[in-house]
Amino acid sequence: MIAALALCLAAAQHPTQILVWGGDAEGGAPFVEADPRDPSRVRGFDVEVAERIARGLGGARSAQFLQVQWSNIDQSVERGDFTLGLSGVEDTPARRARHAVTLPYFEFREVLAVRPADAGKIHGLADLRGRRVATLGSTIAYDLLMQARDSTGVLPISYDDDVHPYGDLVTGRIDAVLLDHIIAQRALRRRGGAGFVILDPPVAIGHYVGVLAQANAMLRDSIDAVLREAMRDGSLEQIFRRWNVWDETQRPFFERVLRTNERASGVPTTTSVQALAYLPSLARAAVVTLLVSVLSMALAVVVGLALASGRVYGSTVVRVGTTIYIEIVRGTPLLLQLFVIYYGLAGVVRLPAFLAAVLALGLNYAAYEAEIYRGALEAVPRIQLEAARTLGLSEGQILRLVRGPQALRYALAPMTNDFVALFKDSALVSVITVVELTKQTAIYATNVGSWIVPGALCAAVYLAMSLPLSRLARRLERRWRVP
Amino acid sequence: MTALLVLDRLTVRYDTRDVLRALTLQVARGELVALMGPSGVGKTTALRAVAALQPFDDGQIVVDGFALRPGPVPPESRLVPLRRRVGLVFQAHALFEHLSALDNVTLALRHVLRKARVDAETIATQLLSELDVGTRAAASPRQLSGGEAQRVAIARALAPDPALLLMDEPTAALDPARRSALGTTLRRLCEQGRGLLVATHDAEFARAHADRVVTL
């Protein structure tokens, strides 16, 4: 953030020298990637396009890269974090309506990739009824899949990155991937040309554009002029050739752009997305959030009880083992645990995403629950246990009849608080393709171009579910207060 | 008269300090023995050792033929005969906070003696009535006065019908009238054939109700 601030300040102080542009190096080559020879620099065709634009704008301008998450490019450019967003940004009518968008500078094809064995049977989305088709969230491809879900019954799966879909396609977790041909070809090259095939013809045609803040329409017009010049003088073609993305469709596309002076050429997608249209998806996502949370908490309670019993009653070996588990789980990010369980274990056991999400969340929270239960068990006064022993109760009976019930009173309030926390942490499971409430909201926000309504709706749904829990926690605390 | 409890040169050390040095005493059936001495002299320690809640370093404890030897407290599984013979009423009562007065008393009846709930409750209700807290059966420990809590604790200790009842400072929180009533109750327990060992520093109570006084 500090770096971003510094860059913005630099941009503000030298308005004529530096064109600050934003992109996502995580998207990788050939768009933008960290240069392997000098990882502090980036390279890729979008990097060179940005440099070409900066040069074309005159005033000895240079381009300066700012890292931004791909799905946040629109919001960031409108905030003024950078001047130009450029990173395989798709041309959509919705984007045009809300931002100043440059001419399209590259034509891409939305292509389906399937396993070789399916290549003879699948020719398009219509052949994928009831099958799992993956893509990157918040893209034209995702919108195409959502339309196909309603028309032909495919099951869209949303990923946060464009690498794992192909891995999961090869291992059989999903049945097809719909993404830009550049991304599909790159994935195929990385796999040595095996594992899946890219289907022809494409499902749709799309274009990459640069995006600027709405207030920057004048600068956008200047950039358009630079892009036209670059199309005419062949410098754009050279850039694309250098990165092996030039093909026979680009020439006629350039000519069309230069001839028609057109700006809008977007794929007809969710232009008229109504806010209301997203409500059923939000409701479904809320159910997913609730299910993931409840099942994870149930798992966390059971495993947590076992861990706590191990720590309080176990032999030295058991105590050390449970302590190591608890410290490792509490000391590492939940996000990492999600990745390890879903992707890391894929070689051993291929868990469905939902199950992996419940396991990761449940096993993570079990460590926290275990500490609550251990603390609660140890908080039961010793004299209560001695009184139970003098009556002749066995250790098991003491735990079940005296220590457990009394510990529960200490544990119930923190447990409820933990459940509220888990409920919100469940948003993290979207990184392993489970579309829950927050993810659905992000998709919704990207498509309508604003976080205000979707954000408020999402917050309202979370609050509607978590506030009763918090109230319950307070009531229990009062009712079970220990003197 | 056969001795119900025999303490033979009972010695307890904390580090190198003798908390209890060579205590020898006997309690017969039907006898109330007061164990006296100022605070910190080891009265509670002696009771806890007899109830196998803490180890002792030397000497021997025999309760109705069951012997405890110096060294670590044996596991509960080996203490079953002792638990059937000895009841302990803690100074702080130590009633189970999550259970009603009645359930405190039925707990051992149901889960140790395996009596049916209805039988356990009949016995418990009768015990509570005899101790004059029959109307407080449904109350939780927090709702009981000090005297009531103590009598519920006595009922709980008596429920498994132990031959020997140990009591730690039973008069500490009682006014004179309650003290006298407690004395009467304890005498009645002796008449039923139980032996009572009562740790107290209340000389007046000991004089009035004990058969014998052992001073530490």
Short description:
By secondary structure, chain A is α/β, with parallel strands linked by helices. Chain A has helices spanning 2-13, 45-56, 73-79, 93-98, 140-152, 164-171, 181-190, 217-232, 235-242, 250-260, 279-313, 316-331, 334-342, 353-379, 382-390, 395-425, 437-448, 452-479, and strands at residues 18-23, 33-35, 38-43, 62-67, 84-85, 100-101, 106-114, 132-136, 155-159, 176-180, 197-198, 204-208, 211-212. In chain A, helix 13 crosses helix 14 (353-379) and helix 14 crosses helix 16 (395-425).
What does this structure look like?
The complex is a heterodimer of chains A (483) and B (216). With 483 residues, chain A is an alpha/beta fold. Chain A has 3 domains: 167 residues, D-Maltodextrin-Binding Protein, domain 2 (3-Layer(aba) Sandwich); 99 residues, Periplasmic binding protein-like II (D-Maltodextrin-Binding Protein, domain 2, 3-Layer(aba) Sandwich); 204 residues, MetI-like (MetI-like fold, Orthogonal Bundle), CATH 1.10.3720.10. Chain A is elongated and about 95 Å long. Chain B has one domain: 3-Layer(aba) Sandwich (Rossmann fold). Chain B contains 7 helices and 9 strands; from the N terminus they run βββαββαβαααβαβαβ. A 5-stranded parallel β-sheet of chain B has the order 6-7-8-3-9, sandwiched between helices. In chain B, strands 2-1-4-5 form a 4-stranded antiparallel β-sheet. The longest helix of chain B has 16 residues. The chains are: A alpha/beta (483), B alpha/beta (216). At the A-B interface, helix 15 and helix 16 of A face helix 2, strand 6 and helix 3 of B.
